[in-house]
């Protein structure tokens, strides 16, 4: 286990487990998805990107290969050990201190805005607003609107893995305990975490209140949003 454990978060399986229950070795096995394509289409070529919650660099590395300059932030030193060719900063997102630095793009992916702690959610948005340059943009990935209802479900990952969302149990107003299972021929992991169920209206109101009004959604399923500082 690396660092302090966040309340309500847990993980099992081989290798280091981060404070929010993520298994470093499991993330190393997950292939790159559509995220780099979505980001590249939405921002200027060669932009400077502040990536909040970079993990092992699954998205970081494709962005660097496409000519972007990336500062990768993660609270797990074990995750950051795997990030190549980027400046790395070991910090929680809500407590990030980079002085007066500003970035063309601030990126908050991996559904991190669904953190179970309202103070952490607000802190993440403050960090996004603080470090985005005038004229820059903030890209946020949110869960699908039926993500908590369409359970159980599973999908293949890579050539030999399975990701299974096994349970989504309500634990309070707008809060769900999610359990995800990852199965490979030689290893298995689990990840259990609280997830805040944003409605579209509440999500947009929160961003507006943080000085980051939504300009547009980048995908048809509205899981990716572009906000521009007010």
Structural class: alpha/beta
Low-confidence stretches: none
Shape: globular
CATH superfamily of the largest domain: Vaccinia Virus protein VP39
The CATH C-level name of the largest domain is Alpha Beta
Q: How many E strands?
A: 12
Q: What helical percentage do the residues reach? A: 10-25%
Biggest sheet descriptor: 7 strands, mixed
CATH fold-level topology of the largest domain: Rossmann fold
Task: Please characterize this protein's 3D structure.
By secondary structure, this protein is of the alpha/beta class. The protein has two domains: 71 residues; 128 residues, Vaccinia Virus protein VP39 (Rossmann fold), CATH 3.40.50.150. 21% of the residues lie in helices and 34% in strands. The strands form two sheets. A seven-stranded mixed beta sheet has the order 4-3-2-5-6-12-11, sandwiched between helices. A five-stranded antiparallel beta sheet has the order 1-10-9-8-7, with no helix packed on it. α4 links the parallel β3 and β4.
Descriptive labels:
5-stranded antiparallel beta sheet; Rossmann fold; alpha/beta; 230 residues; 21% helix; 12 strands; 7-stranded mixed beta sheet
Helix-strand layout with pairing:
Blueprint (H helix, E strand, L loop, with lengths): L9 E3 L11 H6 L5 H8 L5 E5 L7 H6 L3 E6 L2 H4 L6 E4 L12 E6 L9 H14 E10 L11 E5 L3 E12 L2 E10 L2 E10 L3 H10 L4 E4 L6 E4 L3
Parallel strand pairs: 2-3, 2-5, 3-4, 5-6
Antiparallel strand pairs: 1-10, 6-12, 7-8, 8-9, 9-10, 11-12
